[in-house]
Amino acid sequence: MLKIKRVDHIAVGVVDLDEAARRWHEFGFCPGDREKVESQKVEVVLLPAGDTSIELISSRGNDSLSRFLEARGPAALHHVALEVEGIEEALSFLASLGVPLIDKTPREGARGHKVAFVHPKATGGVLVELVEPRKGGGAAPAR
Length: 143
Description:
Elements: E1 4-14, H1 17-26, E2 34-37, E3 42-49, E4 52-59, H2 63-72, E5 75-84, H3 87-96, E6 107-108, E7 114-118, E8 127-132
Parallel strand pairs: 1-4, 5-8
Antiparallel strand pairs: 1-5, 2-3, 3-4, 6-7, 7-8
């Protein structure tokens, strides 16, 4: 069974992270710290919004994200991230249903959380990220 707890974040791919953070700040959001996520070759800035966030995500060698932005412009909705309980079990459950997965096992994402992506074919075109917060919660140690 898939135990969805909440929407963790909505990611917006951006070409220029500084410019995007400035624009969202003018819109009323307070950008958090920047984080390079080496495992995904991206750099992110979280913009807290209640118990969820907008995540600005920029390529630092991620060819897929670069192609995505080339096709859609300097900023575009990239994915919806759902916090789940027991990410390994969630992936096994989805696989047992034949749901197409990008990641069959979780990897480390922003904030040190476990993450895995579900293929957009599963939802009719929306990229979904499953997120399980790291034990202890809070921000990951500086990298």
